[in-house]
Amino acid sequence: MISEAIGAACKRIIDAIVRTLARSRINPNVLTFIGLLINIGCAVLFGYGKFFAAGLLMIFANLFDMLDGQVARLRGRVTQFGAFFDSTLDRYSDIIVYVGIMIFYARDTVAHSTLLVALTGLALVGSVMVSYSRARAESLNIACKVGFLERPERVVLLIIGALTEIGQQNYFLHKMPQVLWVIAVLSHWTVMHRIYHTWRELRETDRAQVEAAQIKLRSAQSGEKVIGTDYSVQN
User: Fold this and answer.
1) Nearest to residue 64, comparing CAs of 100, 91, 39?
2) Tens digits of residue pLDDT in 158-171
3) Quick one: which of 63, 85, 189, 192 has the fewest CB in 10 Å?
């Protein structure tokens, strides 16, 4: 009951913001670009170790990520380039945030950790590959939304990890390393799931294509032998 009330209140607030932005006639692509700039600010804060502030700013940044598409739909400005632009800048936003975290753990401070630098790098690669595997599958006309660690889940995890980096040592605080472990493992698990799903979807089509290609190849080879025999007889 309480969660439904909170959800309804948040929806009303977001809808009001969307309507206001739509009336302002701002280009939805501008909102997408502003979201990227805010994520760059998040990366800078992460690099300086200001994780809590970075987490708060990430909430604001991803609000823009939700708004651009809704504003585009409300204004009838949904375009193929807009979808491409949004997807491309989302990848930049993902990467730059992880780079900021890597810089922090690579710096010569008490928090320096080669392990966490490598772990963040693995999380970065996994995050990019989750998006790439879906895009590549969809280019083959395969719906590939399987897996449970898509971008919204990864963003929420990073925000939770960042907001726990505050105050004194406590069991419930300072959970960014654990969050990075979860993202690093589950993002690659999601990629494997999508590879398997795409293989299953294409298995019959690929088998038919291979069989057709082999039949064509055998026919061509058989034709070459016939031509060779005829030529030798003529001589």
Assistant:
1) 39
2) 999 999 999 888 88
3) 192
User: How far, CA to CA in Å, does 100 sit from each of 8, 74, 220?
Assistant: 34, 34, 57
* CA–CA distance, 14 with 21 (Å, rounded to integer): 11
Report whether pLDDT(68) > 50.
yes
Asked if 220 and 159 touch (Cβ cutoff 8 Å), the reply is no
Q: Looking at domain 2-234, what is its CATH homologous superfamily? A: CDP-alcohol phosphotransferase transmembrane (TM) domain (1.20.120.1760)
What global pTM score does this model have?
A: 0.83
Range 74-110 burial, b when 16+ CB lie within 10 A, else e: bbeeeeeebeebbeebbeebbbbbbbbbbbbbbeeee
Is 84 a residue whose pLDDT tops 60?
yes
List the one residue out of 193, 185, 82 whose CA is nearest residue 137.
193
Residue 182 has pLDDT above 70, yes or no: yes
Question: 51-71 burial string, b = 16+ CB within 10 Å, else e?
Answer: bebbbbbbeebbebbebbbbb
